[in-house]
Amino acid sequence: MTITTRTIDYHHDGVLLEAVIAWDDSTLAPRPAVMVSHAWAGRDEFAVNKACALADLGYVGFALDLYGKGIVGSGPEENAKLMGPFMDDRAWLQDRMMTALDTVRQQPEVDAGRVAAIGFCFGGLCVLDLARSGANLEGVVSFHGLLVPPENAPANKISAKVLVLHGYDDPMATPEQVLELANELTLAGTDWQIHAYGGTVHAFTNPNANDPGFGTVYKEAADRRSWQSMGNFLEEVLK
Fold first, then answer.
1. Is 175 in contact with 168 (CB distance < 8 Å)?
2. Which strands, in side-by-side order, build the sheet including 31-37?
3. CATH topology of domain 3-237
4. What DSSP string runs through 113-145?
5. Is the pTM of this model over 0.70?
6. pLDDT at 156
7. 181 partner at 20 to 30 Å CA-CA among 29, 193, 194, 219?
8. Where exactly are the structural domains of the chain?
9. pLDDT tens for residues 28-63?
């Protein structure tokens, strides 16, 4: 097995974006794809590594780009400025996510009828919003994602299956918000799961997260368990 990567330029609303696609080049047959939606810093090495890890599992990994080609935040203040416009205009965010979905379906390595999406932190909110928009994809997985619902999609039916992997002590997504999300997903008629990890806060999959005061701390057990849960979920929805 050899994991191959390439960059893909695409556009949304006049902005040049750059994704990274990863796949096992030992076979030419199209295979299911999994989009990776990045955290608030942008399409960084972490997101690309997750796309490659998905390629190791037999999928086409697609690390999408929300901010623009070459744009990656350097710290919390800059990251917040990059993320802010999307939090303020969720319809715009959803439209940019749809453009990424359309782009991955156009790739020759991809079975266009079998696509899922995963996201981390801000990216978790992004994939949940993609599902909330009514997008036609098989499933979405949120890792320690932000959970606040958008105002523009209160009554959409959600066809994608949903898996939420959550630190129960996450200060950025409270237990009350988890319950509200469960009610929202139930009303939307979706097939949903929420896995909560005790003693776990935000960014638990990121080995560089070590700021208890900010509420971001890596936790190896939750990282390992959540990735395994994701693998089981993808195997089910993309079979």
1. yes
2. 3-12, 15-24, 60-63, 31-37, 110-120, 139-143, 161-167, 192-197
3. Rossmann fold (3.40.50)
4. EEEEEEEETHHHHHHHHHHHTT---SEEEEES-
5. yes
6. 73
7. 219
8. 3-237
9. 899 999 999 999 999 999 999 999 999 999 999 999
**Among 202, 40, 59, which residue's Cα sits nearest to residue 117?**
59
Joined together, the tokens standing for residue 19 give 């994704």
Output the CA angle 58-62-63, nearest 5 degrees: 130
CA distance 129 to 87: 11
Query: Residue 144: what are its φ and ψ, rounded to 5°?
Result: 35, 50
- CA–CA distance, 129 with 134 (Å, rounded to integer): 9
Q: How far apart are CA 70 and CA 43, in angstroms?
A: 8
Give the model's pLDDT for residue 27. Answer: 85
Note the pLDDT tens digit of each residue in 68-109. 999 999 999 999 999 999 999 999 999 999 999 999 999 999
